[in-house]
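Review form for a predicted model. The reviewer records the input and the model, then writes brief findings.
Reviewer: anonymous (R2)
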Amino acid sequence: MPKLGMGPKRRAEVINATLTCISMYGIDGMTLDKVADHANCSKGVVTYYFKNKDHLTIEAFKSFLAYYGLKIESGIEHTMTPGEMMDLTLKFILPPLSDDADRTINVSQLDGVDKMYIPLADQAKLFVQFYSKAMLDHNLQEVVSKSYETDLQGIAKIMDYGNRTGEMSVEDSHSAAYGVLAMAIGLSFFRVANVPPANGGDNRYICEDYVRRLTKTGGDYEHRED
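Model under review:
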């Protein structure tokens, strides 16, 4: 049993270690022993919080998907325009390519959302591992369904806000949000498969262009890179 008061920290360390192991070895190659080794704890500590590998996989998947929503929510401010909110959303659901190989996986909120981070290479590997398993695992499918329904509602609300302010012109905000999320997911798969756009470079501009076409100004709002 973990030391008194160490519960949240230990649990977070196990989740981070699990995501690291899945990125390194795949879900099939991830074991409780490997997770314990990466979390610098005993296997008993791992099973204290997560009864078996399936339970641990599901909870790690939930944390992986929750990461994106938490980063977006923490960055959005009420003073932002709808365009700025959409830029921030795209920044996290399809982040700009960068060299971040020296950073490690951290999906714990204990030290603040600003400290949370998943390197791009790990995002790609985890994305493929979890989604390939979700095709055949009903429990993982439910995790995806609940997470994406929340994401769709959030994006649709931004578009409704854009309609009210006159910055956007969206007839069906839910369908438009569905298109944005589906495009981001598809472009993520293309990144993993190393399928570059016709003109090369970062394929995220395709999703940005789609969003700009929903604005009444045709995308003249200022794009933020930070």
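Findings: The two ends are 43 Å apart (CA to CA).
Further findings: The CA atoms of residues 31 and 187 lie 30 Å apart.
Recommendation: see findings above.
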